[in-house]
Specification:
The chain is an alpha/beta fold. It has nine helices and five strands. A five-stranded mixed beta sheet has the order 3-2-1-4-5, sandwiched between helices. It is globular, with a radius of gyration of 18 Å. The chain starts with a helix and ends with a helix.
Length: 235
């Protein structure tokens, strides 16, 4: 399984993306009465030049789709953006994306249009989603003038909401991966982190369905309730 993932990521890092129809991009979908068992969900992870969304930039995008409660390896997204002008000296040791990769990457506008078409307006999940949401929305706005509001859900909230008694030893992605004994091919690589997050998401969604959460709206309600409890505990 891990070798298949490595081969897939190697194949995806090259090649042209093709043409796009900017005037007819998919409309963002609202989380309503769609059944979890029938929905397509986008699990996304970004690599950036740093942690400050005001000054730092996106350099790589990785994502995988969950469709019908199954991860299909052929339905993934993994692109490095062509950003040779950016200074990645402070983060290259973390994500491993060097100047050569940024010089040979995909044109930003083309990559973003491809991403939007591939996502097809489906709800987006990410671990600590506020980080990815801020960076992606800024990049879409500055590069494409795109400002549709997509549905986002935070897997860092979903997991403790569904598994409130889990003793993970921390709140990081690695803590949850270790707790469920998952295998991860790489870390701090956008596509690999997205896949790990997707596997954790599936674990949570399967448990949620057993708890009676069967639709996107009910999942949103579960997360809102969890956030209210967390806010109450702060006082």
């Amino acid at each position: 399984m891990l070798e298949q993932i490595r081969m897939w990521m190697k194949q995806r890092r090259a090649g042209a993306l093709g043409s796009h129809d900017f005037a007819h991009l998919p409309t963002a979908k609202v989380a309503g009465d769609q059944k979890l068992s029938e929905s397509r969900l986008i699990v996304l992870d970004l690599e950036t030049t740093g942690l400050h969304h005001g000054k730092d930039q996106v350099i790589a995008i990785g994502a995988v789709a969950i469709t019908g409660m199954v991860i299909h390896l052929e339905d993934q997204f993994d692109l490095i953006l062509r950003r040779p002008e950016l200074d990645i000296s402070e983060t290259v040791l973390i994500h491993g994306i060097g100047p050569e990769a940024l010089t040979q990457g995909h044109e930003t506008e083309d990559a973003l249009l491809h991403l939007l078409e591939w996502m097809d307006g489906d709800p987006i999940l990410a671990y600590h989603s506020a980080f990815d949401q801020r960076f992606l929305e800024k990049t879409l706005r500055h590069s494409l003038g795109y400002s549709q509001n997509h549905t986002w859900m935070d897997v860092a909230e979903l997991l403790p909401a569904i598994f409130p008694d889990a003793r993970t030893g921390g709140r990081s992605l690695d803590n949850w991966v270790d707790f469920f004994n998952l295998e991860v091919s790489e870390r701090h690589h956008a596509a690999a982190d997205a896949l790990a997050t997707a596997e954790l998401t599936l674990v949570a969604l399967n448990k949620a369905q057993k708890q009676g959460v069967t639709t996107m709206a009910e999942l949103n309600t579960k997360l809102r309730y969890y956030r209210r409890l967390q806010n109450m505990h702060r006082f």
